[in-house]
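Anyone opening a protein record will find just a pair of labelled lines. With that in mind, the following record should read easily:
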Amino acid sequence: MSGGTTKAAENARADLPRLMKALRDQGVTDPQVLKAIETTPRDLFTPDLFKDRSWEDSALPIACGQTISQPYIVGLMTQALTVEPRSRVLEIGTGSGYQTTILSKVSRLVYTIERYRTLMKEAEARFNTLGLTNVITKFGDGGEGWAEQAPFDRIMVTAAAEDDPKRLLSQLKPNGVLVAPVGKGPVQSLRRYAGDGKGGFRVEILCDVRFVPLLAGVAKDQ
């Protein structure tokens, strides 16, 4: 990292108190979620070109045409997942690894799947840098889930499914929770599926969001 980039990251980090206040003002109030966000160096996950914006409450572009989500959405989704310390969490869409890291700080184990090999390798390097030992990665089709490790206590999907993600819901424990953006257009609804213990789900729509689509298969040559 160049000296100029380091300076930009340091200046951006000065915005952290403002970011944390913005999250609280928007309804992210879970102490463990806030602590996880506050102690995760978001600048580690952002490209050099955007280091000076690392602590803004905005989504930023990363490689392979993907994005690192807005901190508010990260906080909202993590809070809605109601993760417990012993939870085993499945994340669909590793991306930069930022959301993965937040989840790793509030759960026992995080299983994360990424369809872009480039993103997977870069995220794994960041996990090593941070010394994370409770993240298990997989290069594959996130829409298929991870049947060999199911059932999961919680599932988070960070790409938009066109309809209810039934295959993923089938990999939840009876009282599990899944949070995912759902919809076919550029704007989707963020939905929370809470298992009723009998094979059904209570569905709550949290807000409108904008996510990249959940694509089938794995990306070639990326």
